[in-house]
Design goal:
Strand content: 5-15%
Number of strands: 5
Number of helices: 6
Radius of gyration: 28 Å
Helix content: 55-70%
Structural class: alpha+beta
Strand order of the largest sheet: 1-2-3-5-4
Shape: elongated
Amino acid sequence: MDAQENKLFITILIAGVFIGIIIFLFIRFIIKHQKTNSIRHKSEVETEIATLEKERNRISRDFHDELGPLLSGIRFKVSALEVEAEDDKRLVKDLFADLDTMMQRLRDITGNLVPASLEYGGLYAAIDQFIATTRRNSDLDIRLELPAGRPPRHESDIHIYRVIQEITHNTIKHADATLLSIELTTEPGKLILRTTDNGKGFSFNRNDPNQQGNGLRSILSRTSQFQGEIFMEPAAPNGISYLIEIPLKHYE
């Protein structure tokens, strides 16, 4: 190799190394940028969910502290009325029934906003109570299976509860289903949530935001809060199935 060829080879080698360094730095920048965006997005989701739960607590407290006593006071005043005419007696009786219905709905709404049973009875008790309330207020046949005993409390309980709540509400509102099966089981190292309905189902692309309604976005966001994995697929012969894996390390 003469001097000219040697010089050309060195030039090409230097250029190749330089281009390689630029490519490496560019890829590193992209990865770092994606990681930063991922961290920022997760932080924004956590802040949004925390704000939502705080607002739910505020509304629930206002309902309990203001509307509850107000309705109880009205009911007491109605009970003090002395009426003689049969039409008036029927009117008072209907008013009592309406007030009782309003107070029950208030308890249901407050329970949905901030389930007291989650605080005092644990995750399984809160889920069981929510399903009982939903059965009472809808025509959906809900079949629920929960593990025996009471799990240790953890801050992720509210997210698991909300996921089940969202799946149930989505089924009632959008699926045209008559049956929803919910099963929560334990396996080595994880909790497994399985739900299946017999509704009309839907197509889903995780990477297409246009295919994600508010309910589905909430399910995905809350699943990420307890570092879970979520799988969705069509059920047979129709409907949709969710499989959500929840690491048990959150309950250790």
